[in-house]
């Protein structure tokens, strides 16, 4: 759009940002995000204008307010989890929906393939794993694999592996989003065939009550990592009004924030798998409680809370 129209549409908002003397950490973060977005747009289309210089100064002001001392840096850390990450979930809700849809389709493909091809599960899971699980089923302990080894070593190994997988899923989005879709395909195919295997053995509901104690958080986080990869890839494929490299840098930064934000979720999931899932004889109510609590948290933090924060920031901007 022309520069005068751009200024007219945003002048009131910029004036409010400039005149405000007191900000909460949340307000600082939101203001800084909006100003830097406007600055990036101005640098792209009006690189030598007074508008760009003005926005650069305003962005510097907010940057100094956020980082001027250690106390505020700690507030910035809290603000990331309380405000910035949920707002990214809201901003990229379409990518979250696409990643979820892809993953569900791939899971169904895995389940149907396992149903109509007896060798498919072995192809995906490996002969050793299937043979071991069949032996455990014969012994009356179908989920004995989770009882092997040290709790602590299992926790550390699983956490490191899942974080690595999520980062690979994100980074592979640079290959025009196809790389991310490939990793969603691999994980979805594995989960679908794996889950069908237990249902075919008459252990479907028992597998849900055991495996999804940790799987609810773990699988959801991998899907969200897929969304981060789509943010990265789509920022290059569909730059909209930005120059392609400007859009890519923004997509890479936002996607990385989402991927890093998943680390605590993977750590909690690994804790469940290392220390809790191995207790396969726990009461059903406890298993259901953990699973339900995990699911409720994800729905709240990824969907409901971001919508609430977004509405609050929109109201604050317009008032």
Give a quick precis of the structure:
The protein is mainly alpha-helical. The chain has helices at 3-19, 25-45, 50-67, 70-91, 93-116, 120-125, 127-138, 151-171, 178-200, 204-237, 244-261, 263-276, 284-318.
Secondary structure: helix percent: over 70%
Overall number of structural domains? 2
- The helix/strand class is mainly alpha
The Cα radius of gyration reads 23 Å
Written description of the protein model:
- The protein is mostly helical and 319 residues long.
- It has 2 domains: 3-68, no CATH class; 91-318, no CATH class.
- 83% of the residues lie in helices and 0% in strands.
- The chain has 13 helices and no strands.
- It is elongated, with a radius of gyration of 23 Å.
- The protein starts with a helix and ends with a helix.
- The relative contact order is 0.11.
Secondary structure elements and pairings:
Elements: H1 3-19, H2 25-45, H3 50-67, H4 70-91, H5 93-116, H6 120-125, H7 127-138, H8 151-171, H9 178-200, H10 204-237, H11 244-261, H12 263-276, H13 284-318
Helix pairs in contact: 2-3, 2-4, 4-11, 4-13, 5-9, 5-10, 8-9, 8-10, 8-12, 9-10, 10-11, 10-12, 10-13
Pfam families: SpoIIM (PF01944)
Protein name: Stage II sporulation protein M
Transmembrane segments: 96-116, 163-184, 196-213, 219-238, 258-276, 282-304
């Amino acid at each position: 759009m022309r520069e005068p129209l751009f200024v007219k549409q945003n002048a009131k908002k910029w004036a409010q940002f400039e005149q405000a003397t007191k900000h909460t950490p949340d307000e600082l973060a939101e203001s800084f995000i909006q100003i830097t977005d406007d600055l990036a747009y101005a640098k792209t289309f009006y690189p030598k204008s007074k508008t760009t210089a003005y926005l650069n100064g305003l962005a510097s002001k907010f940057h100094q307010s956020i980082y001027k001392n250690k106390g505020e840096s700690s507030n910035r850390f809290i603000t990331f989890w309380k405000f910035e990450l949920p707002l990214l979930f809201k901003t990229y809700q379409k990518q979250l929906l696409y990643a979820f849809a892809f993953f569900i389709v791939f899971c169904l493909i895995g389940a149907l393939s396992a149903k109509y091809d007896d060798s498919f599960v072995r192809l995906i899971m490996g002969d050793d794993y299937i043979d071991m699980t069949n032996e455990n089923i014969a012994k009356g302990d179908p989920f004995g694999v989770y009882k092997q080894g040290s709790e602590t070593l299992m926790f550390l190994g699983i956490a490191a592996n899942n974080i690595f997988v999520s980062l690979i899923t994100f980074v592979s989005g640079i290959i025009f989003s196809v790389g991310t879709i490939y990793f969603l395909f691999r994980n979805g195919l594995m989960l679908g065939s794996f889950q069908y295997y237990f249902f075919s053995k008459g252990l479907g509901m028992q597998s849900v009550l055991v495996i999804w104690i940790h799987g609810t958080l773990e699988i959801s986080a991998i899907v969200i990592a897929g969304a981060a990869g789509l943010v990265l890839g789509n920022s290059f494929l569909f730059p909209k009004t930005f120059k392609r490299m400007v859009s890519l840098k923004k997509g890479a930064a936002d996607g990385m924030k989402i991927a890093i934000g998943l680390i605590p979720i993977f750590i909690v999931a690994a804790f469940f798998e290392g220390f809790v899932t191995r207790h396969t004889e726990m009461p059903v109510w406890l298993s259901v409680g953990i699973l339900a609590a995990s699911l409720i948290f994800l729905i709240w933090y990824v969907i409901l809370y971001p919508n609430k924060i977004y509405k609050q920031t929109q109201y604050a901007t317009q008032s």
